[in-house]
Every structure is written in structure tokens, then in C-alpha cells.
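Field reference: sequence -> structure
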Amino acid sequence: MRQAMLDAKGRAQRIAAVLHRDVPDGLVETARRVSVFDALGEDLDLLGHTVTGAGFWRSLLCMGGISVLSAALDEPADRWAKDHGDSRPMRALEDAGNLLPFAALGFSCLAFLLAEDPTLDSASFASLEAGAVGLVSALGLKYALGRARPEADQGMGSFTPPGPRQR
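Structure field:
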């Protein structure tokens, strides 16, 4: 119990130091500024305690299983998509899927412009920021790494690194 109280006190001190705000009396006696290295040590200690928990390993096994399953189903799903991709319903589904990011950004923009609730306002702004970062990083990585477009039909592992092109 005492250790939990000390941990809560340390957490409150770190939060107060990050926010550069006063801590209410009774919660923490003094709010000291935490150095980056102290915070890193505490975070690594917390990570060590997290890794030893059963929930962490359960999540890791679930994510590993999903990754193995998706790797095993990747080739059959790609073959099925190539065989059925020219049908009218599949083209309509592709068009709808291509519009989803723009619809989500549009709804975020509307929420940002029309929001009266500060929580919704900040969440919609964060959504717009995430969309912009995703767009810029996807385009930047595509051109920086030379990833082929799906229409080029060069396969999943085809990369042409930037630089002088061979003719």
C-alpha cells in the first residue's frame, strides 16, 4: 500500500513537472522538475514491469498470431482479388474504399469547425493532424523508397530505389 502511494506521488510529480503547473496541496508536497534521464529511467522501469505481466504476453501472442495468419493468407487473397477484381461490385467496393479516408477527414473537418465542446474540438483537430501526417509520410515514403503502385503489377516485394535508372 505504501509503495502504491509513493508511486502515485511520483507520477503526480512527473505530471506536474511536465505541465509546469502547481500541484494542489495535500497531493504532493513539492513539484520538482524531473530530468529527461530520470524520466527515461522511470519509464524503462515501468516497461520492465509491464513486460512481466500476463496481459502483455497475451497481447503479443494475439498480434503474432494475426501477423502469421495474414502472412499465410496474403497470397491466396491476392490471387482471389486478381481473379475477381474486374467485376462491377468489386470496382464499386474499391471506389468506396478509396473514398473512406477523405470522408473521415471531411467529418473531422466539420466537427472541428462546428464543435462547441472543447474535447470534440481537440479530438477532431488531432484527427486532421493525423490525416495530414499520414498523407505526407505515405507519399514521401512511396517516392523515397520507390515502391511500385499496385497497377504496375510488379508484385508485393518490388521496390525500385531512388537514383539513376537503368535503361
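Note: Residues 13 and 31 are 5 Å apart (CA to CA).
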